[in-house]
């Protein structure tokens, strides 16, 4: 029984890794589409999001069936419950990548981020990709140093998020209202994407060490 | 054993009702603070959010201990898993109420929504309160007609959300960038708040009927 359970836990982990890899692809394509006004790539992200949703839903069913059949307790139970939560957060990261792609599609052939904000969003986008890649490796390898790295990258994304507002609210900002609305939402999406990664990283760390360092995504 | 389990499920339900009532208070105060620029009320919402977070966290621990000790299967297991998810969504609704209160505090003594948007945000705010109240009653009574009512109110909130963007993006919009950023975020928060309620309502309905009508919050 115990061996079956361990094998099922590996199956859960593999599926989380699989979903996290699709999230890496989604955010890579979404931020590229956003920064380069590539509408075909944006539509690809939008078309592929249901696949992430379906895999997350399948994983939830697997986790629930493991609970029912294996009746895990203590740490084993927490692992399965955490998998449910990680699946929900990964699914949400996929949704946010889709939102970024939708913004790119709405404004095509214009770029959403222009002039001095272009560089800021390029950096935020590449950091979101790095966060997603580190998260995928963290789930796969359980190398906890990656959790700290994710938190550090998230700190930098938060700084950039604040700097977008400072730019938009400065006296010299000459963007249209459309542009102001777009970059406000875009910045929020980029920031939330990384928040979810931090939340998942905390869960992985907690499961490995028993130390809980916070109450997840705010 | 079965009787103990039923009693524990009632405890879970009572705690969900308790949290949902705090969410009603939070969104009532947050939207009032937002529409009236009442900074004291905004600070009250911000100060009280950790209580919602703590109750949600306690409820999660209770649900996990029920799984470990009672080893529920089939529908009973789904009820407990759903309670974990509802708790996460209610906690998030509290966070969003806090975000709305923070916007009110930042702009005090100015109002965030001005002129023609004031009425729109008053309506959105009162609809968010109605959604939260209906949700609380739905969790308490399991009267499923409330789930349909929540969905209908959410549809109206979505319309208002779109109308905020139409206003801000119209040629006659004369708001400053600060104002454009604020109302963009505020409208998004009001809309997301109701989305979470719809997601919880679907779970309650699913548990009662076995019919799943969607994949939750998008």
Automatic annotation (TrEMBL), chains A, B:
Chief location: cytoplasm
Protein's gene: phoU
InterPro entries according to UniProt: PhoU, PhoU-like_sf, PhoU_dom
UniProt GO BP: intracellular phosphate ion homeostasis; negative regulation of phosphate metabolic process; phosphate ion transport
Gene Ontology CC terms: cytoplasm
Taxonomic source organism: Subtercola vilae
Protein name from the UniProt record: Phosphate-specific transport system accessory protein PhoU
Subunit structure: Homodimer.
Subcellular location: Cytoplasm
Pfam families: PhoU
Domain PhoU: 17-103, 122-204
Entry similarity comment: Belongs to the PhoU family.
Family annotation (NCBIfam families): phoU_full
UniProt keyword annotations, A-Z: Cytoplasm, Phosphate transport, Transport
Function description: Plays a role in the regulation of phosphate uptake.
SUPFAM superfamilies xref list: PhoU-like (SSF109755)
């Amino acid at each position: 029984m115990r061996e079956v359970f361990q094998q099922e836990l590996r199956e859960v982990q593999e599926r989380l890794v699989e979903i996290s890899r699709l999230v890496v692809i989604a955010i890579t394509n979404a931020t590229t589409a956003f920064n380069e006004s590539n509408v075909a790539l944006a539509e690809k992200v939008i078309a592929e999001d249901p696949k992430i949703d379906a895999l997350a839903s399948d994983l939830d069913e697997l986790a629930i069936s493991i609970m029912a059949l294996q009746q895990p307790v203590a740490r084993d139970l927490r692992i399965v419950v955490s998998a449910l939560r990680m699946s929900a957060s990964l699914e949400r990261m996929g949704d946010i990548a889709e939102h970024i792609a939708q913004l790119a599609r709405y404004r095509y052939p214009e770029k959403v981020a222009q002039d001095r904000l272009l560089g800021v969003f390029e950096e935020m986008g590449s950091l979101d990709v790095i966060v997603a890649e580190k998260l995928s490796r963290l789930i796969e390898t359980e190398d906890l140093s990656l959790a700290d790295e994710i938190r550090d990258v998230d700190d930098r994304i938060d700084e950039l998020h604040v700097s977008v507002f400072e730019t938009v609210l400065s006296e010299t900002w000459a963007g249209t209202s459309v542009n102001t609305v777009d970059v406000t939402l875009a910045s929020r999406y980029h920031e939330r994407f990384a928040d979810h990664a931090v939340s998942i990283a905390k869960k992985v760390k907690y499961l490995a060490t028993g130390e809980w360092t916070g109450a997840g995504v705010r």
